[in-house]
Amino acid sequence: MSKVARIKPNYFTKRAMSQNISPEIDRLIKLLSKLPGLGPRSARRAALELIKKRELLMRPLVEAMGDAADKISTCSTCGNVDASNPCHVCAAPARNQAMICVVQDVGDLWAMERAATYKGVYHVLGGTLSAIDGIRPEDLRIASLIDRVKAGGISEVILAMNATVDGQTTAHYITDHIEGNGVIISRLAHGVPVGGELDYLDDGTINAALSSRRPF
Questions:
Q1: pTM (global) more than 0.90
Q2: pLDDT for res 190
Q3: What is the CATH number of the domain that holds 181?
Q4: 3 found inside a domain
């Protein structure tokens, strides 16, 4: 009995598949595939689901994305993203303005807020120092953090960096430039696992790490 050879998709078959899809759908799939966690296959499934439920999903999503594109901006104080500037965290009267929690990205800020324990304000760096990737201090929001500390009124700076080599390198760099300004410099306790990222931690771990913070 003869065996039927399996045909593996190549450049030409992929191109043929693309040509069999309307340009509008093809563009939607390509844009979706650029999102984190979505490869070409997942993007195709997501696009098909949106098309099937265009009234329930696609049209509301288009409206929500339009509103976000028009209204969302970066907070000039902390670097958070919000529909107002300063953001709702910086502007909240109940927040302890003398305590700054330094995080790498907005996703980390959201993770801290989900834990609902921290009552101070934030400073989003926009990444970490990385010699390999060529990310220098001037590429991050480190200078504005130093300015906030030197302006006075800050009692504690919590370095909530990811427990990675780049995260700890960034934490040490910040410490070297803000110590001596009359502020306590602390970091999250080792409840945060080495190599772990805040956005993937459960609320209990974040609460324990924040409560057990110690001087850096």
A1: no
A2: 64
A3: 3.40.1360.10
A4: no
